[in-house]
Write a structure and sequence with these properties.
275 residues, Rossmann fold, 8 helices, three-stranded antiparallel sheet, six-stranded mixed sheet
Length: 275
């Protein structure tokens, strides 16, 4: 469980977070927002790395934290690094080896346990960061941009790891990549310019865009009523289609919305047509 009350954070005269109020229990929660929206600042406040300018946070004593930028002493081996984090988390010495090797196996790094960090790729370092965050089975896990630097196979592996964690844990995944939370999170908080602009279940976020997403032939783009936004281009049977998002009624058939559609609706400030 984590509770945030009236949390704000200033850096000089710049306000990075504006009166944040959240109460999160067990389960996997997504923290979405564009770059610069305040996600990392909020995660650092939750982890105790930053002190809020005002407001309070209440959370578990033991936290697993993967920061946005993660690295460590490059002359240590992977196992030595994990051993260091295990000691910080006060895992008994006689339990450390089994816990470390289990997690290294989970992130497919057990065969590199004796390798020095300077020999590891960026993706391997990121996977080590995920492993150290999970040491000790913490009741609160904070992961900031967890798939940065991971290839598609590693990203899939990360999703499988997170989905298999203790269901009684509170897990917060901060990212600007909607795909990272779409398959995992039942609740999604959206930050923009330091403010919580939406706090919805994943299904409710999809419904927010109901009736505002269309698929039209690219040749008919000139007939669209602005404003609209092209989400992507699709090709089918040698014809090009546009998937568009618009707060206006268009002369086209609406299609089923996704979490990404709802996210863009919120960020653009478009009102829903149906709830």
């Amino acid at each position: 469980m984590i509770e945030v009350q009236n949390l704000s954070k200033y850096f000089g005269k710049k306000q990075a977070l504006v009166d944040i109020n959240l109460r999160l229990g067990k389960g996997i929660h997504g923290l979405l927002g564009p770059n610069g929206s305040g996600k990392t600042t909020l995660m650092r406040c939750l982890a105790g790395v930053l002190r809020p300018s005002c407001g309070t946070t209440k959370q578990s004593d033991m936290i697993g934290y993967l920061p946005q930028r993660f690295n460590f002493y490059r002359e240590l081996t992977l196992y030595e690094t994990m051993e260091y984090f295990a000691s910080l988390k006060k895992i008994p010495r006689h339990q450390q080896r089994d816990a470390i090797m289990r997690l290294l196996h989970l992130v497919h790094l057990d065969e590199r346990a004796k390798s020095k960090l300077r020999t590891l790729s960026g993706g391997m370092i990121r996977r080590m960061g995920i492993a150290q965050a999970l040491l000790g089975n913490p009741p609160l896990v904070l992961v900031d941009e967890p798939t940065a630097g991971l290839d598609p196979e590693e990203r899939l592996s990360f999703k499988n790891i997170i989905s298999d964690l203790n269901p009684d844990s509170c897990i917060i995944i901060s990212t600007h990549i909607v795909e990272d939370v779409e398959a995992l999170c039942k609740r999604i908080i959206i930050l923009d310019e330091g403010k919580v602009v939406a706090d919805k279940g994943s299904d409710a976020l999809k419904e927010y865009a109901r009736g505002s997403v269309y698929r039209v032939l690219a040749d008919h783009q000139a007939d669209l009523l602005p404003p609209y936004e092209i989400l992507r281009r699709e090709r089918s049977e040698e014809q090009e289609y546009l998937r568009i998002l618009s707060p206006n009624d268009q002369n086209a058939k609406p299609v089923h919305p996704t979490i990404e559609d709802g996210y863009i609706m919120v960020i653009r400030g478009y009102p829903p047509k149906s709830l």
